[in-house]
Design brief:
The protein is mainly α. 56% of the residues lie in helices and 2% in strands. It has 12 helices and 2 strands. The chain has a two-stranded antiparallel sheet with strand order 1-2. Helix 7 crosses helix 10. The protein is globular and about 85 Å long. InterPro entries: DER1 (IPR007599), Rhomboid-like_sf (IPR035952). One of its GO terms (biological process) is response to stress.
Length: 333
Amino acid sequence: MGLSRCLWAYDILPPAGFDRKAELLNIASKGGTFPSVAPPAKAVFKIRSPKHREVVEQSWLNIDKDENQILAEIGAKMDVFWAAPPVIRTLTALTLVQSALMYSGLLSFYWAPFMPSMIFSWPPQIYRLVTPFLLTGPQFSFVFDLYLMYRYGSAAEKSMAPGEFFIYLLFVAFIIMLTAGGYLGAPFLLSPLMMAFVYTFSQTNRGTKTRFWVVDIPVVFLPYAMLLVGMVTNGWYSVLVDITGIVAAHTYDFLTRIYPTFGGGRNFITVPGFVERYFTNHDPNSGYRGYGTASRAPRPAEQPSSASTSGSSWGSWTSSGSWNGRGAGRRLG
């Protein structure tokens, strides 16, 4: 089938500019009968000599090899996609589809902005609770925004228990809608959502460094470095909108980790059992690293493992080291 399709295509196109393989296929297709509407199920052509047969068979093998290589590359990319955490891969895919449709003109931008008056109209446009988070910037920002969303969102989801990132996403999006959308009047909310992912990533990896452009900085300063760049390129209003993402992510962090761990309070945001079971069953290898729990510091005789170097170091929140000074812990009884 691969050769027949190529023979048909090369037969109706002018030979100018063809490479060697295309010219070989043109030679093989001479004398063949090809319809003008659709490619045949099997190519029919005349073999004029043993050399001609050798050329045809070698061309067929080359085409099949190229097709298999292309299919293998597509399969490898799909494996990477399906290996990503489920929530962020779905969010990234939806953002890619909506942004591509709108920037290509196939879908109107009318459906994207956050408009509270339209949400509470009749009939209510409920989709506006979602679409403002799924539109990237134009041109180069289209790729850059998708990359930032996938990179930092994936890191945040991997650091949380199964299903927790889904609840985190709902909570953070709700706070951003109230602050950036409702109070500041921002029509598009993907930028503060990405800033929330970056803030969570920076807090999960406290004590490490990251590369920002060409400079290595402590990872906790990454959100503020991005705010500074945003102020220079887009102005104060964009900075205020992005700050709402940091506020939303910090509020979640405070209610689920800081206050319960260091303030002795209860966790006000828990993952419902059915949500946890669903994500556990559908993504058992989610790479959970215990987000929201204090990690034990190594004893003096131990060397920090690679996980503690690149992972979360919640003990650095307190300068007194009261949490870091705790022992390994043993089961009572």
